[in-house]
Amino acid sequence: MPTVSVDKSDLYERLGRTYTTQEFDDLCFDFGIELDEDTTEEVEAAVAKGLPTERPQLKIEIPANRYDLLCLEGIARALSIFLEKAKPPQYRLVPPAGGELLTVTVDPETARVRPYFAGAILRNVKFTPRSYASFIDLQDKLHQNICRRRQFVAIGTHDLDTLKPPFRYEARAPEKIKFAPLNKDTEYTADQLMTVYESDKHLSRYLHIIRDSPVYPIIYDSRDQVLSMPPIINSQHSKITLNTTNIFIDTTATDETKLAIVINMVALMFSEYCEQPFTVEPVKVVYPDGRTQITPNLDTIPMKARASYINSCTALSLPSDDIAALLRRMSLIAQVSKTDKNIIDVDIPPTRPDILHECDIMEDAAIAYGFNKLPKGFPTTNTVAQPLAISKISDLVRREWVQAGWVEVLPLILCSHEENFEWLNRKDDGTLAVKLANPKTLEFQVVRTSLLPGLLKTARENRSHPLPLSIFETSDVVVKDPTLERQARNIRNAAAVWCNRTAGFEVVHGLLDRIMKMLEIPYIVNAASKAESGYYIKEREDPTFFPGRAATIYYRAPPQPSQSQTKLANVKETLKSAFSSTPTRDIEIGSLGILHPSVLEKFDIIFPCSALEFSLEPFKKNIESPWDHANDEELSKGADIKVV
């Protein structure tokens, strides 16, 4: 959640009283936000030492979808309405004094880079140093939040008195764009600006958005004076200052919905500083297809909420009038319908784009009433939870291996491509691993297909611990599966690594035998045996393991004949098994062995290790649930899931 720092004295002055830290913390909780820090003590300590410091600040955590609370003005306005010290403002569009709207014409070439535009004008604004700083800070908060670091929307603000309308929003080749950027007197081409800002800690983060585009967006006035090159930098010519009175706000975007939200937030939060508070002068935007838009759109959105629905969700029994009064405390315009007393007509103001559904209105009513005041009661239905079969068996493995003296570890599920394949001497055929499209670091490139990389990295980082090092993990791996809608599948695996001065193959083999015994799965001495079910191991050649010191784990599930299964089918299966070294019902579930020295070298482990990894998925059928039986007596006694 974003954290907003506001001037403590300014906020309390707007709220009409001072609060202790605890009182304001309680107020924030009641309203659904959180006081993160009060810097008063730090400031007082700095002042006592004679050190320079800023005024006391309140750092407040804001819900990510409450864009109207990202500045002092929005927080003070919302809290004043919540405390019923003020009424929700009526935001209005006012025509310009001359009668003709400022026009911005959008060039067709902008469709190649940032096709949408919106604008607004704030007239006769009176800024103070702190309100000016809040104005700039709001833009930055929006850029980092809904604008997704300017990729979806970019905001520019300009001194309108330095410009001559109408304006043009165009897209030109970078070598054809030249202007003096903000806080610089020298003119640069767009190509040169990309080089200039490569070393800038702030702006370098946004260069990639348009750098590879054949054309860059640019805004001109009627005298070809540049306003800004979104989403990178504004022009020095139209820079706003404390003396600026008429502000032109431009927003360009790749997402039209977010564009409308952002222009409303910037304009309406600071419209209170206009000579006529809460008024905005609209801008006419003309698109290449002849379509025109008047921005910003300050129309309220009508919605209906049922008092019965709100009462049923909150366990209250409030009349519709009381619910409407609660909603008005949350800056909503609400009144009971004249035709149906159960219906509340709610108008959603342009500052509340987070209200999308009747459930959002219900939530606001609950906040205004007070979550701590809501009645507590038992649910009308009783249900008894039970773990999934795979979770039940995973817990069984954890419990048994911990009791055997092994330590459970929890590595990350993402790893590098090298760790998942090359370091284990395995090849990537492209059909197994799920790869991240845009990994931030080389450490997190793929979703692991084996638990071994995480265990070996854990062993490497803990090599200073006394030997032996015996660690295990029971968790998911992910593989591609084109047959599923999501194109990937989770598999629950169990894996263990033993690290000591000797390899310890017999130790991991014993660990496997132990868990199979707990699952009541018998050991099959000979793979050709006619045993109905069980497990056995068979030598294998695997580059991950030392030659001649690796084995495949096979599992033979018990037969489960259905009514449709015939004797002929059984005969066919018997014949297939007779001509195969591995019976048809035997499935490979994992492997174990002594790790190859080259694997240990890549993971920087100096001691020999043995490893075990197998899938728990085939054993889900061995978990019996009480819900599979109709024995009500057993259920009433609290029968537990058990291994059979």
Automatic annotation (TrEMBL):
CDD domains: PheRS_beta_core
GO molecular function: ATP binding; magnesium ion binding; phenylalanine-tRNA ligase activity; RNA binding
Predominant place of localization: cytoplasm
Keyword Nucleotide-binding in record: yes
Reaction it catalyzes: tRNA(Phe) + L-phenylalanine + ATP = L-phenylalanyl-tRNA(Phe) + AMP + diphosphate + H(+)
Keyword Amino-acid biosynthesis set for record: no
Subcellular location: Cytoplasm
Full protein name: Phenylalanine--tRNA ligase beta subunit
Organism: Sistotremastrum suecicum HHB10207 ss-3
Lineage of source species: Eukaryota, Fungi, Dikarya, Basidiomycota, Agaricomycotina
